[in-house]
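Translate sequence into structure tokens.
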Amino acid sequence: MDSDESLYAPTRQVADPASCDFYHVMDIPGYGLTTGAMWDLRGDTAGYIGNVDLAGKRVLEIGPASGYLTFYMESQGAEVVSIELPTDHAWDVVPDASLDLTGFVDDVTKGIVRLRDAYWFTHERTGSSAKVHYGDIYDLPDALGHFDYAVLASVLLHVREPLRAVEQCARLADNLIITDLHYADIPDDKPYMSWFSTKEAPVPHVWWRFSPGIFVRFAEVLGFDSNTVSISEQVYVADGPPRSVPLFTVVSRRSSAARAT
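Result follows.
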């Protein structure tokens, strides 16, 4: 068995959109506009990933959900490898004793299956060449190879050890793109990470609130010698009328000299 077969999931054919959940609004060839999404990034997808030039770049993407960003980056000329959890892998749930965690994990598992169906449904209809590796973001295999960029877009708030995940990506990629919710009450330039879930309003699927400064500082620790921060406005379309929400994007780059050390 060659490395591609052992590392990457086989492509799947999903014919029925009723088996799918679409996390982002997408206009899928031969199908049309998706419904029931959480976010619509179409107004400024480039800003969402820091306005970087992806043409001819190899990109490692953490957490593709239903694949909107995967297929957008491909449309910009990137070769994309996405990392997703296996269905039998434990979810990084906030272990709050006051919550029905068993019921939550069951719901999450069903939702992941539907997101994956949406990914493969869209993969086929866009003629995508993107690959998926089902594995542990805290233990990325070296065999995945070298990447020009690693993209962690709106995923780190959901993981117990976000800096460990960043460090894993930094092993494999020359540049990092990290996007997350922007909070006006958190100073951008301070390396700050705080608990999201409260005793009064516990949340099992969100761990953290971040400043962009924490990822700038950690990127410096890891040897990235150029870091920029930008803000984009994205449209949240779940739970009522669409509304604009600010997100920050940190783009961290290693110069040739930094890569050589």
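Note: The first strand starts at residue 27 and ends at 28.
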